[in-house]
Amino acid sequence: MRTYVRRAGLLAVALLVALGGWLAAASPASAHNTLRSTSPADRSTVAAVPAEVVLTFDEPAIAMGTEIVVTGPAGAVGDGPARLVDETVGQPIRAGSPAGDYTVQWRVTSADGHPITGTFTFTASAPGGSSAGPSTGPSAGASSGTGSGSSVGDGSAARTRVPTWVWPVIAVALLLSALTSAGVARRRSRRSR
Question: If you write DSSP's letter for every residue of 32-96 in order, what string do you get?
Answer without folding.
Answer: ---EEEEESPTTEEESS--SEEEEEESS-EEEEEEEEEEEETTEE-B-SS-EEETTEEEEEB-TT
